[in-house]
Amino acid sequence: MSDPAAIRPFKIEVPDAALADLRDRLGRTRWPDQIAGTGWDYGTELAYLRTLCDYWRTEYDWRAQEAALNRWPQFTTDVDGERLHFIHAKSKHADAFPLLITHGWPGSVVEFQKILPLLTDPTAHGGRAEEAFHVICPSMPGYGFSGPTHSRGWDPERIARAEIEIMHRLGYVKYGAQGGDWGAIVTPWVAKLDPKHCAGIHLNMLLVIPPPDAKTDVLTEAEQKRLSYSSQFQSEGTGYQAIQGTKPQTLAYGLTDSPTGLAGWIVEKFRAWGDCPGGDVERAFTKDELLTNISVYWFSGTINSSTRLYYEQRKSAKLAIADGKIATPTGCAVFPKELYNAPRAWAEHYYDIRQWSVFESGGHFAAMERPNEMAADLRKFFAALR
Hints:
The chain has 386 residues and is of the alpha/beta class.
C-alpha cells in the first residue's frame, strides 16, 4: 500500500490527443455577436478573443511552454484526502531561506516563472548569495496539476493547513510565506496556524475589514485614491464572484466544454486587473503568458474546482484576521492597479507591519508584471527574518 504522505516526482506531460482536441474545439467555436464600437464595455472583446484563440489554435507552442515549466522540479503528495502538486525550486546556495508562495484565481504557478530565477539564484541577477530562497509554489487544491478536489470545505483555512503540511514534510522548520489574490487570504492563515515555524509573511493584496475606529478623512490623497479604485471594482467588477460564490457548477459546463469560453472568462480578468496601459492587455502580458496560464486550467480540467473556492469561502466566511491581530511580522507590497489596497493604518490594526512598499506601476499579478520589484521587496523584507 502506497504511503499517502510520500512526496512523488511529477512531470507535466499533456497527451498529444489533448492538444489535437483543443485545436479541434477552437476551430469549431460558435462565436457570439457584439455591438459595433463597444470594445470591452460588455466584457471580453470579440475581435481580441478571435485573435487570441486563432493564435492558440495555429501558432501557440504548448510543448515549448511545457518544457519551460518542467525545468523546475515538481512533486505531488496527498494531504487531507487530495493530491497536491507543487514546484520545489531549491537554490544552489545551501543557506537559502525557504519561501512558500501561494497564487490565486485565475492564476496558477505559471505566475511565478519570471520571479523564480530571481529568488533562487540572486547572484545571477544582481543580488547576493545570502538573499537566496528555496521556493515552494503549490498549485492550490483544485487548481492546475493538483487536479480537481473531491470533497467539500476547501476554504482558505483548510488550504493553509495543507500547505503547512507540505512545508513540514519537506523538513522546513523555519520559513516565510507570500501571497497575492487568494494567496493573500491563505497566507495569513499560514501565519496564524503555524506561528512557531512561519517567520514572516509578505502580501501583495491587502484585504482587511475597516477597523472600528477607521476614519477616511485622515487618509492621504493616495490612500483615498486606492480606496476609490477598490470601491469601483467592488461595484462594477465583481459579477464573477457572485456566480462563482453561489452556483459554480452551472458556470462550469460552458467553461469546461469550450476553450474559447474559458479564455474569454480568464483573459478579461488579466486585462481588468493587470496594469495594462491604454487597456492593451498585451502591454502587460504576452499571448504566450496568457495562454499558458489558461492552458493549465484547460488541460487539468480544473476550472470548476478552482471556482468552488469562492463558494467555500462564502460558506465559511472566515478570515484569519477576524478574531485578533496576527503577530507574525508582515510586509506589504502596494501596487497601484491592485484590486484591494487597505490604508496602512487599517492594516496595522490587524498585522504587525514591518515593511510597507508603494510602487508606481503594476497590478494584481505582481510576480508576472513586476518580477524584479517583487523579488527585491522579498529580499529586503526577509533579510531580517532568516
